[in-house]
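User: structure tokens for this one?
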Amino acid sequence: MFPSASFRLAGILGCLAALLLPTRRVFAGEPAPARPRFLIEIDTGVVPAAAAGRAIHLAVAVADRGEPPLIRRHRVVPAASPPGFDALFQPPPEFAGDLGSYRSPLSFRAGTPVKTPADWNRRRAELLREWHDFMGPWPPMLERPGCEIVSTTRRGELTQQRVRLEIAPGQTGEGWLLVPPGRGPFPAVLVVYYDPETSVGLNEKQLLRDFGLQLARRGFVTLSLGTPGGNAWKPELGSAQCQPLSFHAYVAANAWQALAARPEVDAARIGIVGHSYGGKWALFAGAMWDKFAAVAVSDPGIVFDETRPNVNYWEPWYLGADPVVKRPKAGVPTADNPRTGAYRRLVEAGHNLHELQALIAPRPFFVSGGSEDPASRWTALNHAVAVNTLLGFTNRVGFSQRAGHDPTEESNAQVYAFFERFLTEKARR
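Assistant:
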């Protein structure tokens, strides 16, 4: 992503030289070269103004100093962060260090403070166990989920496959797998939403939710999945005994297993992203399955907030499922329409979603906030910042704001930049 029409090629050419230099052959008895074999000219390139903010391809040529000179060419896809991106990883002054009224996750249930990374490992296990106890146990994990290729087509330079994936024992779901051109292994992102078509740009009514397509165009393998069973208000849980939102996290964990088993995917670089309902799904999956290397959520409501009707974790299709007490109707809890299920127990016990955000640390976490997640949510995110600080990490929690709930070109560019920063080869060096 280019924030302007100009950029510096130094990093690109440096990486290219590293790729090309190993191709130099030295034969027995040949004298060592007196000067560098490759001539790397570093200069400023200019991108057409119309290309600013877009991923583009560059054909870069490198000439060596041999006799005669040999030119090698390589195609690269350069990327840079959008303007102001780095600032999104620092709370504004009015919220810096403000932990709000949330109970610190850096304290054991018995009250003992967490002082070391080793302490945090034990506290993290305690927190994760508590949330599983509230929400119910997962079914057994699928070590190698079945994945049937239903169809394969070309979509520009991408390979697009319709897949039928085993998501739980005896249960499958269909989705879309997009693979970029070239030789992997590639980073990958699981994209979760109501339906997989939206995530790959096959729903013309919701084009700015096409995270799977846009990330694939940026060099990521993407797997886009929809609601288990197809109805987000009545998700199909099979024989699972956990809350629906926890089951969604379980499905995502099995999807991670499927992606990790693919030869074109680097299992150490698999992230997850979702918008709104999908953001709730991604938040719980990223917290409860620590093999996701980076987690991004778009305006899901990152804390329990009964002043916002759309931050509706209390509903039975999220955390309010209850075999005994049924809510009379959907909507914000009231005396006549009380909390139910795990949501009621979590709230009464003083838990909130800042604990899940802490479970993600030190893995990178990005919140693309809108109407449901205003800047004041930093008071919850600061707890994840504190855990990262204890573990020796900085700039791992990012938070952007927009006015409305719907994603925008700018907010999506920030999400893509987040994954490019933390999951690309550059991030590994």
